[in-house]
Structure formats: C-alpha cells, structure tokens
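Give me the 3D structure for Lipoprotein.
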Amino acid sequence: MALYELSVALLCLSMMTACTREAGAAAYSMASVNPVVLTQLDGGIVQMDFKVPPETYYYVPGVDYRVDGQTLSVRIIRCSIKSRCEAMAKLLPGLPPGDGRVRIPFQGKTVVLRHLDGEQVLQAGL
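Predicted structure for Lipoprotein (126 residues):
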C-alpha cells in the first residue's frame, strides 16, 4: 500500500511542477503542437502554422523567439487563463479553434522549435 501512496504523491508533485514552470521554459510536447508548417512569405516573414492543444485552464497567446545569425529559435507560450501573458509574436485572429498561426520577421533558413520534450529543427522557405 505504501508504494501506491508514494506513486500517487509523485504523480501529484510532477503535475504541480509542470504548472509552475519558469517563464522561459517550453511548455508543450512535440506531439501536442504538431504538425508544424513553415511558409516563407514576402518581406522576410516566416509564417508558422501549428496545432493548438485543447485545454481548459491554459491558452496559447503566441510565441517568443530569438534570432541568432541564420537560426530562429521559437517557443510556443502556454499561459494560465488566470494570467495575462505577452507574446513577441501574437497568435493571429480569425482561425478555427485548434489552429495556431504566427508571423515572425526572419530571413534565415533554420528554425528551431523548442518543446518540453526536446527541439525540432525545421527549414524555412520550403
């Protein structure tokens, strides 16, 4: 019985930890936002389309990003409905529920999408 109680306690602790992540940490797994599609638009803009996970207590306001030379690093923001989160690139309005789209100024070729469970390297302009 003690093993069961320990397992339940660890599960509860891991769920609380996931909800209190620091602001700079990625919050979604690869599977929860894939497929991710990049489109190179005119004027040095990369459009990123992705799946928005259905959640009751969290929402996606957009993405934060950083450009380092020819590489764009992107993190999809996961925000509590009780908080107001600012995104560097806001989710574009008018899309069906479950669809996300952002536009980011970037003229390089490599995009690294940071996830909870690793990084996904994508090529812009394909």
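Residues 3 and 9 are 10 Å apart (CA to CA). Let me know if you want a second pass.
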